[in-house]
Amino acid sequence: MPETSGSTGRTPETNVIDFRAAEQLLAARDPRGAVKLLDSVIAAHPENTAARLLRARAIFAAAQLRPAELEFSIVLEREPDNAFAHFALARTYERQGRPDQAKRHFRLAAALDPNPQFLKAARFES
After folding, report:
1. How many secondary structure helices (H) and strands (E) does the chain include?
2. Please, which residues have CB within 8 angstroms of residue 39's CB and are 6 or more apart in sequence?
3. How deeply is 17 buried, as exposed, middle or buried, from its count of CB atoms within 10 A (0-12, 13-18, 19+)?
């Protein structure tokens, strides 16, 4: 009998399949479908930062800015050196009309990773 996680009856393989399917749904521009799959993955593995980051991206893509902000913040609490999470949180702040907070996280992203997209958004010259 396959090993299951907790009372959910989910196997580790089910969680991996759901994670990969959520990646595909997000790529296919179905962020709500991705979030739905990731909710069960995160319920089974709340410590899984990769699942939380993917969920945050999906929530952002669904234009649910406050929940996206919260999810990106959880990722950054666990991985403060995650340049992409800083960049995505900055984009979230930008869309919420919070330019000072956005600027701070754009600059942190660029400092952590000299990705041209991060550097351009950081606008160090201004």
Report:
1. 7, 0
2. 55
3. middle
pTM: 0.88
pLDDT(23) > 80 = yes
Cβ neighbors of 12 (< 8 A, separation 6 or more) are 3, 5
CB 92 within 8 A of CB 53: no
Counting every residue written for the chain, the total comes to 126
| Distance of alpha carbon 74 from alpha carbon 62, whole angstroms | 18
Q: Cα–Cα distance between 43 and 12 in angstroms, integer?
A: 13
Ramachandran area for residue 82 (φ above 0: left; ψ -120 to 50: alpha; else beta): beta
- CB-based contact 103:90 (threshold 8 Å): yes
Task: Tell me the percentage of the chain whose pLDDT exceeds 70.
Answer: 92
